[in-house]
């Protein structure tokens, strides 16, 4: 019960960030602009994105509950806030503003932040850290998709 409130808080923040990011997308993956881009051959079908982000945000929220329980600090709160900002703003930069290069910078920064979360807290929460693996793998895929579009359009 002690972990339920923080879990609900992180689920609301993380899924709220996804919802806000989706709202900023301006039709996102269904837009004419995006569908007409030369996309990477390994671009997954659209339904995979929803499944991936749902899984990622559930795992990330559980991870955050344990991390904040063991290592709450101003630095950690700022890193988490920065992660939320980068995750939300990428949608706007890439899909709404069509700024592919800046999108690559944003998603690369997000990737660095999440990998930093993993490696800097691995000893703090040990096996719970592996809940970040879906997020890390997805960001590597997403970064490669963004890079492919940048360099092949």
UniProtKB/TrEMBL annotation:
The entry's cellular-component GO terms read:
membrane
> How does the entry describe its membrane topology?
Multi-pass membrane protein
Task: Give the GO terms filed under biological process for this record.
Answer: tetrapyrrole metabolic process
Q: Which UniProt keywords apply?
A: Membrane, Transmembrane, Transmembrane helix
Looking at the UniProt entry, the stretches that span the membrane are: 7-25, 45-66, 78-94, 100-119, 131-151
Name where it mostly resides: membrane
Q: Which family does it belong to?
A: Belongs to the TspO/BZRP family.
Protein name as annotated: TspO/MBR related protein
User: What is the organism field in this record?
Assistant: Olleya aquimaris
